[in-house]
UniProtKB/TrEMBL annotation:
InterPro entries in UniProt: DUF362
Organism: hydrocarbon metagenome
Annotated DUF362 domain residues: 56-271
Designated name of the protein: DUF362 domain-containing protein
Source lineage: unclassified sequences, metagenomes, ecological metagenomes
Pfam families registered for this protein in UniProt: DUF362
């Protein structure tokens, strides 16, 4: 028996203005969403989907407040209102935003906090919760017996998510990712959206070739009851980008994709970009580990709604000749930053694309300065390292272990910036704020007073988020 996935097209046109101007959706599109969301949930089972507690937990993609990086508030509103009308006793909107951020601020900047006030949904800031340890079980610890194993074999899971795991038969859990490619994970849809569950300090390790394995490890602990992919827009060249590049990276696909099988739903989402299971490592691994309930590919999916086939999809008529949209970073970076890569372990999932993404965003949106060097990976030519002059950021533990001591001895600690693990995003951002002379306050799209209040509240409530110092553009921190 095939697994159903629903795809609804939103027929109204998107904005006529440049996508560099991020705007609320027009009334016609909102009306389409208002019709499509109830139709999707009704087809999936409607009120019968509610479980014994009557509680609904909704996980958006609120990685950041950057334009097009988060789930549209207009879609979340209709989801909340549907379950409110259906008789849900309580509705929660839960998230644990990306490293170098804290969820309260993201909720304030995206309109999620206001949405909760207006609808009665309760916000849950997972970074402020206590947590419990769970295993990353896909691979053993790194060592002689398993050289590609994990550096970190356990992680901390917030209490609310532990409750969903332990009481999965009592609560309805709805996963609402945004339709995005990802420069480290190829796509970020339902499976990748759950990477927001582990506490931030557990995400920087093994954010390398092991990332797809760890995404699947989290899926092994918790799977959503429903995944609804918000594709009002899709993003190519990655999941988080400079707003200045939006016209090159935003695609007005205007679709909603939903199902009760997260892997099947993700397969359909990936096909919108022209990508298959073989292109997305974490989907391939999830299938191999038996986490797809028998779905191995498009042949096991029954489409419902407004799409007849998963073959040769070209929703807006601009699919590249190669048959898929690009997912790697758009190639536009500051010309006066020298990037030196080793000949081993320059992982796009970690020390390569994370720093490049941050650098590109600060350069394009915040007039970030160049005139420095970025060193990545291992297996470096010592003669090249010996020629480095001026300020240098060494990103990733591989590069730090190999070249940092020598650079510090020759250049002095003041000129050498270090960002450890495979992806310590907070340290990378702090380093670049200082190197590129970007004020952290200008990097956040909210009033500085609002930002300060949110920061203080998060700290008072016990947030464990790793957040850059507000004066890191002035004070060298790493």
């Amino acid at each position: 028996m095939k697994t159903k996935v629903i795809l609804k097209k939103l027929l109204s046109s998107h904005q006529n203005e440049s996508f560099t101007n991020f705007m609320p959706l027009n009334s016609a599109l909102v009306s389409d969403i208002r019709k499509a969301v109830p139709a999707i949930f009704d087809e999936l089972g409607g009120p019968s989907l509610l479980k014994s507690s009557g509680e609904v937990f909704i996980k958006p993609n609120a990685v950041d407040a950057k334009a097009y990086s988060h789930t549209r508030v207009e879609v979340l509103r209709e989801i909340i209102l549907y379950w409110k009308k259906t008789g849900a006793k309580k509705i929660y909107l839960l998230e644990n935003s990306t490293q170098a951020n804290y969820t309260r601020l993201v909720y304030s900047a995206t309109g999620y906090a206001r949405l909760c006030r207006e609808t009665g949904a309760k916000p849950i800031y997972l970074d402020e919760e206590k947590s419990r340890s769970l295993p990353f079980s896909g691979r053993g610890p790194a060592g002689a017996k398993e050289p590609d194993g994990y550096d970190l074999t356990t992680f901390n899971m917030p209490e609310t998510v532990m409750r969903l795991i332990e009481e999965r038969n009592r609560h309805l859990y709805i996963n609402v990712p945004k339709l995005k490619t990802h420069s480290m994970g190829v796509v970020t849809l339902g499976v990748k959206n759950q990477w927001g569950f582990p506490m931030q300090k557990c995400r920087g390790f093994d954010h390398n070739y092991n990332l797809p394995h760890k995404l699947t490890d989290v899926l092994g602990h918790i799977r959503p009851d429903i995944t609804l992919i918000e594709g009002v827009e899709g993003t190519i060249h990655g999941h988080y980008f400079a707003t200045a590049l939006a016209d090159k990276q935003v695609k007005p696909f205007r679709v909603l994709i939903a199902g009760t099988n997260v892997v099947a739903t993700d397969i359909v989402g990936a096909r919108i970009f022209g990508l298959g299971v073989e292109d997305v490592p974490h989907l391939k691994i999830a299938i191999e580990r038996g986490l797809s309930d028998g779905v191995n590919g498009p042949q096991d999916i029954e489409l419902s709604g407004d799409l007849a086939s998963l073959e040769k999809i070209n929703l807006i008529g601009d699919m590249p000749a190669c048959g898929h949209y690009p997912w790697d970073l758009y190639p536009e970076f500051p010309p006066d930053v020298t990037v030196i890569k080793g000949n081993k372990l320059v992982c796009r999932e970690g020390c390569l694309n994370n720093p490049l993404c941050v650098m590109q965003t600060m350069y394009k949106d915040n007039a970030g300065k160049g005139g420095w060097t970025l060193v990545l990976g291992k297996g470096h030519d010592t003669s090249v390292i010996d020629k480095i002059n001026g300020r240098v950021l060494v990103a990733g533990h591989c590069a730090i272990e190999e070249v940092s001591e020598k650079l510090i001895k020759r250049l002095g600690r003041k000129k050498v910036y270090l960002s450890g693990e495979c992806n310590n995003l907070c340290s990378t951002v702090e380093a670049m704020f200082h190197l590129m002379k970007v004020n952290p306050i200008s990097y956040v799209p909210v009033n500085p007073l609002v930002s300060s209040i949110a920061f203080l509240m998060a700290r008072l409530k016990g947030s464990t988020s790793r957040v850059p110092h507000p004066l890191s553009h002035i004070i060298k921190r790493v």
